[in-house]
Structure formats: structure tokens, C-alpha cells
């Protein structure tokens, strides 16, 4: 058998595990194009040496297959390279742009209300409840000659009336908030 370091057409590697081969033969073994092999080298696939004709690279097939397998494992487990992270960044950017467009469309279609108008109406409802609560001691003073059970019942009714008023709060769809 010929010396492996001089044979570019299939000598055994020093470890005896893989075959030392040229790029075209490696491409056939991997079932890819010669151009793909060149791309793999650019991404880090190991070269055995540059002992081929005209100093062409030679490859240890076992090392290359292991490298390719490791890249597939990394890709499938999410331990992606920077190239894949760039793809994720692009995907997220596209998603953000789509969401922005949806919100813009929803505003145009008036699915979102005017926040200032909502806050004005909520402020009015809370002011009304506050006024009722502030008047509660005066209301209770009118009940001072009643028995405890009647006072408790009337105060409870008044509090429930205020809570009902708050629970019935809705934002008007008309522009009547501007007329106040």
C-alpha cells in the first residue's frame, strides 16, 4: 500500500479510521456538491493537509463526517452559530413589523379607544363615588336615633348603591365627553 501522506486518491489516515480523499470524492461520500464541501471548509470543517495535486486540500473522511454530524446536532439542539442567530434576529424583526402594522390598522379601524376620553370618563365616575363616600358620615348622622340593626342595614344599602354605580361604569362610544 502506498504512503498515506503522498496518496491523494484514498490512502488510510494515520489513525486508520477514515479515508484520506480529495474534495470531489468527499463530496460523493457525503452526497453533496463539491461547492458544498468548499462551503463546509469555510465554516470550519477540518482539512487533513494540502498534499493533493497542485497543493489541493485532502480530507480525512471520518473527521469530516464527525464535524458534519456535530454541526447537525448543534443546529437541532438550538446551540446555533452566529449565522443562525442572525436568522432569528431577522425573524423577530419581521414579527415586530407585522405587529406594528396590525396595531396601526386597529387604530385606523378604531378598535382601540381614545385613552384621554376613557381617563376623563373614569375620572368623573371616581369623583362621583368619592363624593358619595365623603357624604356617608352625614348620611350616617341622620340615622343616629335608629337602632344599630337599621343603621347597619341602611349604610350597607348605601355602600352597595355606590358599588353598583361603579360596576355599571362604561365608556360611552359617542363624543359626548367633549360636551362636558
Question: Please, could you describe this protein's structure?
Answer:
With 180 residues, the protein is mainly alpha-helical. It has 3 domains: 20-77, Arc Repressor Mutant, subunit A (Orthogonal Bundle); 82-112; 115-179, no CATH class. Helix content is 61%, strand content 3%. The protein contains 6 helices and 2 strands; from the N terminus they run βααβαααα. α5 runs antiparallel to α6. The protein starts with 19 loop residues before the first strand and ends in a 13-residue tail after the last helix. Residues 1-10 and 175-180 have low confidence and may be disordered.
Features:
mainly alpha, two-stranded antiparallel sheet, 6 helices, 2 strands, disordered C terminus
Low-confidence stretches: 1-10, 175-180
From the alpha-carbon coordinates, what is the Rg to the nearest angstrom? 39 Å
What topology, given as strand order, has the largest sheet?
1-2
Calculate the terminal CA-CA distance, rounded to whole Å: 101 Å
Which structural class should the secondary elements be placed in? Answer: mainly alpha
* Helix-strand topology string: EHHEHHHH
What's the overall geometry?
rod-shaped
Strand content: under 5%
Average per-residue pLDDT, rounded, comes to 78
What helical percentage do the residues reach? 55-70%
For the biggest sheet, the summary is: 2 strands, antiparallel
Total domain count: 3
Amino acid at each position: 500500500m502506498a504512503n498515506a501522506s503522498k496518496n491523494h486518491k484514498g490512502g488510510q489516515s494515520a489513525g486508520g479510521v477514515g479515508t484520506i480523499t480529495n474534495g470531489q470524492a468527499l463530496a460523493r461520500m457525503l452526497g453533496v456538491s463539491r461547492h458544498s464541501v468548499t462551503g463546509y471548509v469555510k465554516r470550519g470543517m477540518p482539512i487533513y493537509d494540502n498534499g493533493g495535486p497542485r497543493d489541493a486540500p485532502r480530507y480525512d473522511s471520518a473527521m469530516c463526517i464527525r464535524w458534519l454530524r456535530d454541526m447537525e446536532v448543534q443546529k437541532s439542539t438550538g446551540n446555533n452559530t452566529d449565522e443562525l442567530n442572525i436568522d432569528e434576529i431577522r425573524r423577530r424583526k419581521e414579527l415586530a413589523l407585522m405587529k406594528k402594522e396590525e396595531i396601526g390598522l386597529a387604530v385606523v379601524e378604531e378598535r382601540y379607544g381614545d385613552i384621554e376620553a376613557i381617563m376623563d370618563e373614569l375620572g368623573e365616575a371616581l369623583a362621583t363615588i368619592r363624593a358619595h363616600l365623603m357624604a356617608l358620615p352625614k348620611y350616617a348622622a341622620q340615622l343616629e336615633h335608629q337602632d344599630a340593626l337599621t343603621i347597619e342595614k341602611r349604610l350597607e344599602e348605601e355602600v352597595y348603591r355606590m358599588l353598583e354605580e361603579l360596576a355599571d361604569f362604561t365608556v360611552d362610544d359617542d363624543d359626548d365627553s367633549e360636551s362636558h
